[in-house]
Amino acid sequence: MTTRTDTLSDLDFPADGLAVGPDVADLLFREARTVNTFTDTDVSDEQVRAAYELLRWGPTAMNTVPLRLLLVRTPEARARLAAHMPEGNRSRVLAAPLTIVAAADTNFHEHLDVLAPHLENARAMFPDAAMRESMARMSALIQVGYLIVALRAVGLHAGPMGAGDTDAIDADLLAGTGWKSLMVVNVGTPAGPESVRPRAPRLELAQASLSV
Q: What positions does the domain Nitroreductase occupy (predicted)?
């Protein structure tokens, strides 16, 4: 694969300084919303695969790519997951067409021969389990952001939530995998205007940054 390094300099940037059209910026960020209720329209494996094909290219530390996705579809698995969620989120998990448990793979180092071929004996660099878990969580949380944007890019909507009792989720649904649950993301098609809250304000750059 060839990477063009001069692409951005060749673009005719819109007036607002974006390298993409305003419709794309709206789809991915400005008009996209956290969705609380969904229609019963199925989310296909092909749609999930299309989103993953985008998110997997986002950067992670040392290209560890530790995000793992548990796709919760069956009523039995949905009920098991809901039992470990905060009470206010249980009905959302039970009703969404697809719920994804986003997890960090603490055994990510087993794939480094493929993912980081430039690092000699990369697997041996991570003998400490606590260090692996910390590193996996950091990069996987970054990848959750990619996941949400990627879902929007393929025409889906997301409702990210805290995972509740993560230890219980890990024991019940992820036993033996080395995965550690981070959060839960409901996925589907919005049920209508009532499926989102009114748009809340955001901080300006001056409020959210410092220059040194």
A: 31-188
